[in-house]
Every structure is written in structure tokens, then in C-alpha cells.
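Case study 2.
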Amino acid sequence: MSQNPRKKTWWAKGLLFENCNCTLVCPGHVHFSQACSHDRCLGYWAIRFDEGGAEAVELAGIKVVITYDSPQHMIEGNWIQRLIIDDSASAQQRGLCEEIFTGQIGGPWQVLAQFVGSRLPTEYRPVLIEEDGGRKRVSVSGLIESTIEAIKGKNRSEPVRLTNMFNQIHAPEQELALGSSRCSAIGLQSQGTHALSSHFSWRVD
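Prediction:
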């Protein structure tokens, strides 16, 4: 983790969703000190930038996936993490994404960076993120195929939501979902496991 991130103003808004091999709700999502469902928590975060940027670099339209492999108690650190950036991103956009998601320029990912013990080389591949109401899908050529489906509440037209949640990267209101994934990058094979989504807003001034 960068203890003293470089001063850089940046902001971003968009869609964030995740799936891991935990049962619903992933205990590590509530707090990293809680024991996840298995000896290793295997999962991903999929990010679609709808707005944002830094200086002259725009982020709108860029898609990113982060895979991780962590101990059962995520707070122990030593996560294995890989950043995958859509290959349509320009060199400047790739560089800004690296700075954001490795915590070099502050913001929520600087907090998560302290738990990463091993960063695998960044990959640049076609990333597809689709959203159709409560259904979200991410596909990374040769690595990931995943779909999450929002859980319906008593009012069948509305998803089940977590509200007033404290989370470094997600918005305070999150939609609960179940996910199914095949992720060769980390050996994730999930069927009806923890998933959720939110529309994030990050800013560093």
C-alpha cells in the first residue's frame, strides 16, 4: 500500500458488482474480521465507469475487473489480486486505472491496497459488462463468465437491499443478489452464491 499517495484530484461514478464463493451474505463484505464461508474467499469486483476522470483523462465507458483470492479472515491480508482492464482503454486510461486500483492516488482502493500481498500482472482483455434491471453479467475473454441476479423481496417488483452499510468501495445502499461464475483466473466455480451490486461514487480532492 502506498502510505503517502500522490496528490491528484480524481472522481468516478458507475456500476460495481461482485460475486464470490461465500454463502449469502459474504461475512467479509460486512467486515473483514468475519470468517468467510470457506478456507479461501475467491471472488471478483466488476466496475463500469459511467463518469469520471483526472486532469485530461476521461474514464467514462471504461470497464475493469479485479479478481482476488484471500484468507478466510480477509483482515489477515496477503490477498492475491489481479487487475484486468478492458483492452479498448487508451494508454492514459490504463495508467489512471492502475493508479486508482492500486491505491497510488488515494481514495477507497488505497484502503483495500493494504491487504494485498501479491499483485499479479495487469491484463488487457475485452471486458463485457451488461445490465438488464436486476441482472448483471460480466465476461472477460478466456477468463471469466459470470451472471448475478437480484433477489426479489416481499414486493416482487423490488430487489432486497442492504441500506446504511459502511463499505469502502460500494455505495451505502446495495442490492443483494445470487451469482453464478466460472473464473479460471482464480479457480472460482460458483452457483447461487453471494453477490451484490451498487452504483458507486468516489472522489479525491
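The CA atoms of residues 88 and 126 lie 7 Å apart.
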